[in-house]
Amino acid sequence: MSLLYAEVEEELRATVRQALAGSADPWRALAVDIGCAGLAVPEDRGGAGASWREVAVVAEELGRAVAALSTATVPFLGTTLATAALLAVEPTELLAKMASGTVTVVFVAPLSTPPGAPPHDSVRPDGSATAASLTGVVASVADAAAADVLLVPTQSGLFAVDAADARVVPVVSLDQTRPLCDVTFDAAPATLVGDPGAASGAWKSALMTGAVVLASDQLGVATWCLESTLDYVKGRYQFARPVGSFQAVKHRLAQLWVEVTQARAVARYAANCLADGDPDSAVAASLAQAHCGPVAVRAAEECVQLHGGIGFTWEHPAHWYLKRAKSSAIALGTAAQHRAALGALVDLPSR
């Protein structure tokens, strides 16, 4: 296992960074032009045949580009959850369409769903397996507003619903770069894509994969905050000296550099485990979330504080990163919930 970025991953990083900086429609640039929508999908199922390592690189760049996403919609997390769920069931035409970027499929689950939670029971299917309809409400779903198709896990199976047949209502969210919606189904026509047995595996795979990919997003947030703060304190003078030359500032940034470096190793390890199908993947996913979430929040807080007065204004992008970090810290489980899950996975007593 190598935690270093391969040459092809660095090339992908550069391409994604350029697309996010210069495209009027970054989601189309990522999903269609670059092929990010199908990175983790095998070639024989219509995808690019890459791995979750490459997906993690894209997520990291999205974390770094949070300020640019404040005026654009990039439903990467929601589609990543859907990809993981579809890969866990039988090959479908829907997966190939999603991998091509022509159809945006979003996984319908509350953003705050913790690790180990069962599939939500707020949506129930009616009718036969081949001609079902769904009724119910799922609150706080990430990226649902951008979906063409909603992938809905229930305790009776995994269903696909055209977004036009559901009511998707935006709700006020802390992080405007990852908008949330309440999704309501009122006898919405649905297609079964996975029976209850397969749906259970798809649900677990989606949550675990989402935790890993989210950790890379958090790493990107923390990296931008550290780098931008370093640049600022080296150029901002006070008492005829750079602010970064003061010992107290040096110590804070040195400690933050250590934490971000550790977060990079943890996030890369989790992505590598997922890419290799390692049996340690669930442990690596919870470890990554338990560590990377708090690091991203700390980095964003330090970014705001060490930028001084300008860091507290709406004009500076630091607030976008703080909101993203705080929102991501409760997405797919808090650090405390992942530590509890980690303890159970490695047979450590809770007390």
CATH topology type of the domain at 201-345: Butyryl-CoA Dehydrogenase, subunit A, domain 3
Overall strand count: 9
- List the secondary-structure elements in sequence, H or E: HHHHHEEEEEEEHEEHHHH
What form results from the Cα inertia axes? globular
CATH superfamily annotation of the domain at 201-345 = Butyryl-CoA Dehydrogenase, subunit A, domain 3
The CATH class of the domain at 201-345, by name, is Mainly Alpha
Structural class by helix and strand composition: alpha+beta
Strand content: 15-25%
Instruction: Give me the number of helical elements.
Output: 10
Rg value? 20 Å
What is the second-level CATH architecture of the domain at 201-345? Answer: Up-down Bundle
Helix content: 40-55%
Mean pLDDT: 91
- Main beta-sheet strand count, sense and barrel state: 7 strands, mixed
Which regions are unreliable across 5 or more consecutive residues at pLDDT < 50?
none
Give the CA-CA distance, first to last residue: 33 Å
Describe the structure.
This protein is of the alpha+beta class and 351 residues long. It has a domain at 201-345: Butyryl-CoA Dehydrogenase, subunit A, domain 3, CATH 1.20.140.10. The protein has ten helices and nine strands. The strands form two sheets. Strands 1, 2, 3, 4, 5, 6 and 7 form a seven-stranded mixed sheet that branches. A two-stranded antiparallel ribbon has the order 8-9. A hairpin with a 2-residue loop joins β4 (149-154) and β5 (157-162). α1 (7-22) packs antiparallel against α2 (26-34), α3 (52-64) packs antiparallel against α7 (247-276) and α8 (281-306) runs antiparallel to α10. The model has no long low-confidence stretch (mean pLDDT 91).
